[in-house]
Amino acid sequence: MGNEIKITPAFIRAVYDVVAAIPSGRVATYGQVAERAGIPGAAQEVGQIMSRVKAEQNLPCHRVVNKAGTLSPDHVFGGQERQRALLEKEGIRFTGDGHINMVRYQLSEYEQITLPWS
DNA sequence: CGCCTGACAGACT
DNA sequence: TAGTCTGCCAGGC
Q1: Neighbouring-strand partners of residue A27
Q2: Residue A61, CB, strand B, below 7 Å
Q3: Nucleotide closest to residue A53 (CA–C1')
Q4: CA-CA distances (angstroms) from residue A115 to A22, A42, A43, A105, A109?
Q5: Residue A49 near residue A15, CB atoms below 8 Å
Q6: Nearest-angstrom CA–CA distance, A54 and A16
Q7: pTM given for the model
Q8: Is A90 in contact with A24 (CB distance < 8 Å)?
Q9: pLDDT in tens, A19-73
Q10: CB of A107 within 7 Å of some strand B atom
């Protein structure tokens, strides 16, 4: 038995919802997003979905980072500096090495995301 | 079909 | 915390 990892429209929508619900000033890992979207282990697929998100969709993709707290490659967000600027603007501080202090800003596994409309 | 790559992650060191 | 290796799966060729 297992969770088939398929990038279905339903999964994509679920990912959008989860990402949209990440509070400003917090970050979530790809794995967390996958889990909350209903398919644990689909972290890489979430990344794939993120890579296809268009700016018009207005999703806070910059709040999704890898578990090490390092930013996305230079070819996205118009450079890491841009993504970093977006996050710092929300109050997230970086270490001297240029990565996020995940212990401090990562959304906790047990923390319920509070949706804007609830 | 196989082979390689990737906005990833867990286990170990 | 950082490297390294391995597992994972979708997609492109």
Answers
A1: A106
A2: yes
A3: B7
A4: 8, 23, 22, 18, 16
A5: yes
A6: 12
A7: 0.89
A8: yes
A9: 999 999 999 999 999 999 998 889 999 999 999 998 899 999 999 999 999 998 8
A10: no
The token pair at A68 is 């090490």
CA closest to C1' of B7 belongs to A47
Residue A85's identity, in one-letter code, is: A
Whether the Cβ atoms of residue A60 and residue A76 lie closer than 8 Å to each other: no
What number of residues does chain A have? Answer: 118
* Bases on strand B under 7 Å from any protein CB: 6-10
Of the candidates A19, A115, A15, the residue with the CA atom closest to the CA atom of residue A63: A19
Find all residues with CB under 8 Å of A46, minimum gap 6, and list them: A15, A30, A31, A33, A34, A37, A64
